[in-house]
Amino acid sequence: MKKQIVVVTSGYERFVHWLMAISCLLLCYTGLGMMYKELNFFGAIFGGLKGLKTVHDICAVFFAVGLLLAIQMWWKEAGVFVFPEDWEWIKAGGDYLWHVDHVPETGKYNPGQKMFFLTVALCGLLMICTGFFMWFPHYLPANLMDWVYVLHVLGFVVIFAFFFVHLYLGTIGNPGSVSAMFSGKMELPVLRMLHPKWVKEMEHEGKLMIVEDKK
Amino acid sequence: MSEKIKLYDASKCTACRGCQLACKQWNALKAGQTEHKGTYQNPPTLQPNTYMIIHFQDYVAPEGDVRWLFRKEACMHCTKAACVTVCPSGALYYNKEFKTVGMDREKCIGCKECVSACPFEVPRYDKETEKVYKCDMCETRITNNMNPACVKACPTGALKWLDKDEALKIAEGRVQQLGGDANVYGDKFVGGTHLMYVLKEKMDVYDGIKKDPKVPQSIFVWKNLLKPLSLLAAGGVIGAELIHYMIRGPHKPHPEHYEEAKKQGGA
Ligand code: HEM
Ligand code: SF4
Ligand code: SF4
Ligand code: SF4
User: Fold this and answer.
1) DSSP conformational letter for B200
2) Tell me: the pLDDT tens digits for B173-201?
3) Which residue in A14, A188, B55, B153 could disulfide with B71, CB within 3.0 to 4.6 Å?
4) Tens digit of each residue's pLDDT (9 = 90 or more) over B67-105
5) Does the C-beta of B89 come closer than 6 Å to ligand 3?
6) Does the domain spanning A4-212 belong to CATH 1.20.950.20?
7) Cα distance between the two ends of chain A
8) Which residue, judged by its Cα, is nearest atom 4 of ligand 3?
9) Pocket test for ligand 3, best of B86, B105, B114, B222 (most atoms within 8 A of CB)
């Protein structure tokens, strides 16, 4: 069987992805270091807990920029559900939970990916808003401010759990997909599996960029 | 040594502010320039460099006479201290001997979480040092068998540093003696405070006093529910993935995905 390699992401897309991913990971790491006194030692690599907090503050800015760029870039493709095709996919469990011979085709991103994107976008915005007020707690009445902290941690609960879902599905859960975020290329069969309709559209429009033909 | 309380008897206080000055002096806190606003209360509020103030208040009693009320405001040293619960760095802690709330400023990271949590609006954040400041009951003094600086300075006996049982007894006795609306403030909320007042008037009369201070409910949701949930949820996800990987295995292209011409389903 032929192994064709296709260009799937631009450098800009990968830049935005990693800007958001790295800052988000550091935010989770530093956030954990503050939430659990037992994990205060996470600060050691930043010269103490004060340094850890500073890293959280700085990463917050990078994360906010990354998230806004990501929303702007991916909103159309990953932010809106298209019915009924997305619903068909969900009913079939997307081939992830049980075997499906022919999985309903969806747009560039399937509903699972859309749900992940929307979760990151909404929780990310929540983190930015709540985090902002945690910098300036006097901007809000005290009894409202109390719940801002709760929302910040609620967002963390969701983001932290989803991070592991994303990590699994982006690597060993879907072998061959991770290269999209490193080299920006993917093997055609994997691409067909993950983004069938998109491949067809690109083929149709003659935009499919095949860079290598391995026999 | 046992649990101790600083008892402030408003009925004995002459508002000389010796305690306020002693506090500044012992803690080496600079004075700040303030404006005269028609009251002796100065500075107007607690500040990063003012851990305690005496409130001055002109109160027109229902009987028609004007009374001059005084009240010492400072950290109340709660038994259930919201600030200690939220502080991520361990900068705020309970003194093991006296159950007061001490502060290790070295450790403070200036996150301001205690500022929002404290039901008495006590901790004050300083932009310059990026740290928070509050009364620590003169921890270095009390652990060396001395009275807090304010207690030491008080010429009238309005301030006392006593064993808890004794303090409560004295406070009750004083309330009986004063009669009328006199009452004890501090024993009924946040598990009891370690700065308690004997007030001459009903609590509601005093400006700026907290009538129903509580550890915010949100802190329970935050620290007791969501905090453990964050690790549980992530652990659950990782567990589910392991099971998925073993039972269902990684997601691989179907044969149809390898063939150019054939109909291609997604997955
Ligand atoms: C993916 C994004 C983020 C995650 C996962 C995250 C996570 C956390 C966690 C777990 C905590 C500790 C809460 C506790 O003490 O229990 C925290 C604290 C905090 N976060 Fe975030 N956060 C994120 C984004 C942000 C953003 C965007 C901002 C600012 C705009 C921000 C500002 C803060 C502040 C001010 C604190 C209090 C401690 C400090 O001053 O560093 N966070 N965060
Ligand atoms: S009064 Fe505020 S700062 Fe003082 S112990 Fe209670 S919660 Fe903490
Ligand atoms: S500002 Fe300082 S004392 Fe207050 S909660 Fe944060 S680390 Fe603790
Ligand atoms: S030193 Fe004593 S009398 Fe003077 S203001 Fe303080 S508590 Fe009142």
Assistant:
1) S
2) 999 999 999 999 999 999 999 999 999 99
3) B55
4) 999 999 999 999 999 999 999 999 999 999 999 999 999
5) yes
6) yes
7) 7
8) B114
9) B114
